[in-house]
Amino acid sequence: MKFMEIKSKTPRIIDTHRKPLAVITGATSGIGYSFAVKFAKEGYDLLLIARDTQRLNQIEHDLSNNYNTKVYILTADLTKREALIKIESYLKNEAIDIDVLINNAGFGIHGAFQDTEINRELEMVDLQISTTLALTKMILPNMQKRKSGYILNVGSVYSFTPVPFQSVYGGCKSFLYSFSSSLAYETKKDGINVTLLCPGITKTEFRLRSKVGRYAQNINNKLSRNKQKGMEPDLVAEQGYKALMRGDRICIPGLTNRIFVQIATRLPTSFLNSALTLINNFRGVNPKNA
Ligand SMILES: NC(=O)c1ccc[n+]([C@@H]2O[C@H](COP(=O)([O-])OP(=O)(O)OC[C@H]3O[C@@H](n4cnc5c(N)ncnc54)[C@H](OP(=O)(O)O)[C@@H]3O)[C@@H](O)[C@H]2O)c1
């Protein structure tokens, strides 16, 4: 029965000689890296994409040795159109069937909109929106042909709220909510699961890279990474993986995050904006004049 296929835990693979393959963007750290480990443990081969070749090589070495999995790596700055063309020709040349696509790569920008850098914001839109659309468009037809596929987009609890002083980030994550929900509906008949994973604060390099407030420390400083509050990325990836395999449209990992979304979506927008500004002032991630 088709419905059961969508819900089944193991992807249906037409060529029984090959292992399923998962493509993960932003796999060199945080949630993307945790997804890479999770899929390797579950018996997948991997195609990992990020900018840092040295880290990609190390991850390739570790995962292929520890989990007897094939790890392909692709160095690409996904804010650049040329990178997407490179990926498209790579996929065409290799003629590989992709079973899972994890659109994860992302970064944050904090500040009042008039003070932030427009070029960086356009790069954010390119990474979070354009790249997600382009990769999905590249990979979806083959999944539809095979009547099987799994696509997970990494949104945020901010997919459900406006976010003052992170307005472009919040806008990107809201876009992903709308896009993922619509795509899930459209492709259900083709046996494809589409999940929006909506983490809250997670202990990754995200805030260190955004260089905000008290997190503006050296990215290589493991101590500052470990001092962060929030969910462990492994747990976020674990819950995202299960939701994707079950066919859940939305996955909000962690009880606190689920409560946050339940409350936030019931509040009037003007009140929510003030409340979020206060919370983020308290967390030290807003500019001083917020
Ligand atoms: N951490 C949180 O609290 C949190 C909460 C909600 C949602 N999220 C979302 O979770 C996703 C993953 O973030 P994370 O928290 O795991 O952060 P992270 O540790 O900073 O990881 C970000 C990943 O994205 C890659 N990346 C960044 N810019 C890229 C580019 N231009 N081209 C290709 N790859 C790029 C980075 O690799 P390279 O540097 O090697 O390119 C890295 O692997 C993001 O979409 C983020 O918005 C995070």
TrEMBL record:
* InterPro entries, per the entry: NAD(P)-bd_dom_sf (IPR036291), Sc_DH/Rdtase_CS (IPR020904), SDR_fam (IPR002347)
Segments traversing the membrane: none
Q: Name one Pfam family in it.
A: adh_short
Q: Which GO molecular-function terms appear in the entry?
A: oxidoreductase activity
**Keywords, sorted A to Z:** Oxidoreductase
Which PROSITE patterns does the entry mention? ADH_SHORT
A single Gene Ontology CC term: membrane
Q: Does the keyword Oxidoreductase apply?
A: yes
Family designation? Belongs to the short-chain dehydrogenases/reductases (SDR) family.
What is the protein's name according to its record? SDR family oxidoreductase
Which organism was this protein described from?
A: Fluviispira sanaruensis
Which lineage do the record's taxonomy fields give for this organism? Bacteria, Pseudomonadati, Bdellovibrionota, Oligoflexia, Silvanigrellales
